[in-house]
Amino acid sequence: MPNNKKWKKAFSNHSARTGVRFIEALAAKAASEVEDAVAKDDTEIETRARIIKTPAEINIKLSPLAQRYVTGKNKKIDIRGPVFTTIKTEIS
């Protein structure tokens, strides 16, 4: 969602920006899967992201303390959206 006049209302809801981008989180997930593949002696791996619904899908973990704080304030953390990206890795 671009941060311009058209979307001003969406950005003015007192939400906090984390600076985490989907593509960076997906790259971290792909790196994690490559490490697992190397440990299993796999030679090819494919990491896909289509629609993100949970933080775990893109390798983001929120501590239980932070979750309780947010939900205790009757707020929510909304991490979802389209990514539609595939990372293909060949290990030799």
Explain the overall architecture:
By secondary structure, this protein is an alpha+beta fold. It has one domain. 34% of the residues lie in helices and 21% in strands. The protein has three helices and two strands. Strands 1-2 form a two-stranded antiparallel ribbon. The longest helix is centred in the first third of the chain and has 18 residues, at 22-39. The mean pLDDT is 81.
How do the helices and strands line up, and which of them pair or pack?
Layout: H1 8-11, H2 22-39, E1 44-52, H3 64-72, E2 81-90
Antiparallel strand pairs: 1-2
Supply the key terms.
single chain; 92 residues; alpha+beta; 3 helices; flat
The secondary-structure class comes to: alpha+beta
Low-confidence stretches: none
Number of domains: 1
Helical segment count:
3
What is the general shape? flat
Strand content: 15-25%
Question: Sheet bearing the most strands, described?
Answer: 2 strands, antiparallel
Helix fraction, binned, reads: 25-40%
CA-atom Rg in angstroms: 17 Å
Average pLDDT across residues?
81
Q: Tell me how many strands there are.
A: 2
End-to-end separation: 39 Å
Strand line-up across the major sheet: 1-2
What string, H for helix and E for strand, traces the elements in order? HHEHE
Gist?
This protein is an alpha+beta fold and 92 residues long.
